[in-house]
């Protein structure tokens, strides 16, 4: 049985990618929740994760004696172990595009990720308007994301980025969540894609668990001092 270590569902965007990928694909796994209480070496989170991971981060996937400690590596491992799930597009060109889009998310869009931290439970539309007005980096990241999504949806026919659900949609699910939380402006076809992602059973299950946590963690709340 696969075991996936994750952090708080309300805040942990990297955990969401791996969890949604497995859940939406119908791959059985055991969830190991490790609460965020700090990221210094003495925190319970770091002590717990240091026992199983060389980086002491989440997500982390265990498959027997195999340990995978990076979200993109997890996606590749799962796609390799479960080829019948077709987690990457079958067409070679589409598969290359999907891997490129995922890699771009994995290593980029730092302005958006820094300014608009994931917070599923919160309504931060007012803060989103300020960020959009004042943060050119966020606007630039959103311009690139929007252009990419429009191109892929047009090329592959939707409703997912490559027609059917793939690693790419799992990877961009937290971006969709951020756009919803901060009410960042997007064109109609992008709003429709975000709604399709939001309604995926795997995403709905993650959101339901995030809302049920009721765990206010100040270090993950840059815009609120209390719920």
What would a concise description of this structure say?
Residues 2-86 form the GST N-terminal domain. Helices cover 55% and strands 7% of the residues.
Structure, described:
The chain folds into two domains: 2-85, Glutaredoxin, CATH 3.40.30.10; 92-207, Glutathione S-transferase Yfyf (Class Pi), Chain A, domain 2 (Up-down Bundle). The N and C termini lie far apart (37 Å). Helix 1 packs parallel to helix 3, helix 1 packs across helix 10 and helix 4 packs across helix 8 (167-182). 55% of the residues lie in helices and 7% in strands. The chain has a four-stranded mixed sheet. The radius of gyration is 17 Å and the shape is globular. The chain contains ten helices and four strands. With 227 residues, the protein is of the alpha+beta class. The relative contact order is 0.16. This is Glutathione S-transferase family protein. Residues 2-86 form the GST N-terminal domain.
């Amino acid at each position: 049985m696969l075991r996936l270590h994750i952090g708080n569902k309300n805040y942990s965007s990297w955990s969401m990618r791996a969890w949604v990928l497995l859940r939406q694909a119908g791959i059985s796994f055991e969830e190991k929740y490790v609460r965020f209480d700090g990221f210094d070496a003495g925190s319970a989170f770091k002590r717990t994760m240091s026992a199983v991971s060389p980086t002491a981060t989440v997500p982390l996937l265990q498959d027997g004696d195999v340990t995978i400690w990076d979200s993109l590596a997890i996606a590749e491992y799962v796609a390799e172990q479960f080829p019948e799930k077709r987690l990457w597009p079958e067409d070679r060109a589409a598969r290359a595009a999907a891997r490129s889009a995922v890699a771009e998310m994995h290593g980029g869009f730092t302005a958006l990720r820094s300014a608009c931290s994931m917070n599923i439970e919160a309504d931060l539309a007012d803060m989103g308007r300020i960020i959009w007005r004042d943060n050119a980096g966020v606007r630039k990241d959103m311009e690139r994301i929007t252009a990419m999504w429009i191109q892929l949806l047009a090329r592959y026919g939707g409703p997912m980025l490559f027609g059917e659900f793939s690693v790419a949609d799992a990877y961009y699910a937290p971006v969709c969540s951020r756009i919803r939380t901060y009410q960042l402006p997007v064109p109609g076809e992008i709003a429709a894609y975000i709604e399709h992602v939001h309604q995926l059973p795997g995403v709905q299950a993650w959101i339901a668990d995030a809302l049920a946590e009721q765990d206010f963690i100040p270090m993950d709340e840059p815009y609120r001092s209390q719920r």
